[in-house]
Amino acid sequence: SQKIEQNSEALNIQEGKTATLTCNYTNYSPAYLQWYRQDPGRGPVFLLLIRENEKEKRKERLKVTFDTTLKQSLFHITASQPADSATYLCALDPTGGYNKLIFGAGTRLAVHP
Amino acid sequence: EADIYQTPRYLVIGTGKKITLECSQTMGHDKMYWYQQDPGMELHLIHYSYGVNSTEKGDLSSESTVSRIRTEHFPLTLESARPSHTSQYLCASSASTSGRVIGEQFFGPGTRLTVL
Predict the structure, then answer these.
(1) For chain B, is the Cβ count within 10 Å smaller at the N or the C terminus?
(2) So what's the pLDDT on residue A29?
(3) What residues of chain B lie within 8 A of the CB of A34, using their CB?
């Protein structure tokens, strides 16, 4: 079956370190993949989109990679801060542009001072 | 801050009641979506709309219904609420044209529904 997997265990890191979150998918060939941030009790907020022909995308302290051979995306936050603590969701569109997203369950990140 | 609104934010209601969850956006987006999310779980798409008078069911079966009479408004209705409907309901919208990142979805704050 079609599936998106993210680490279900929380990731705990020290302030200033780089956080790396993983998103693996099976049975899809998405044209692009997205990352969102979700805080408790709130809706997700869009962070980055990476297309299948892009290996890497950066935005400020965020970096996303996309390996269509491994069917994997990595999401990095450099110089992490306690304010980065949240759940990070990976999402992809299997419909080829109709934007009907399928989401992973997310990985909770906790950045400790 | 996304201009997409949901009301109510919290709703506790008895079994059998009819409820309508409101969602409005002021960005002129043609695409709108309803997702259902249980704590610690994935968002599941239950309804989507590509424009006025266009609605379709999502991948997760839902007893709710939706309507899209105006571009900015996409309400979700449950005719007879049951405890199994207890969940968080998130509304989202996205644009079709460039000028924004195509594919980026803007989410409302959600409605936390509890059916007793």
Answers:
(1) N
(2) 79
(3) 103-105
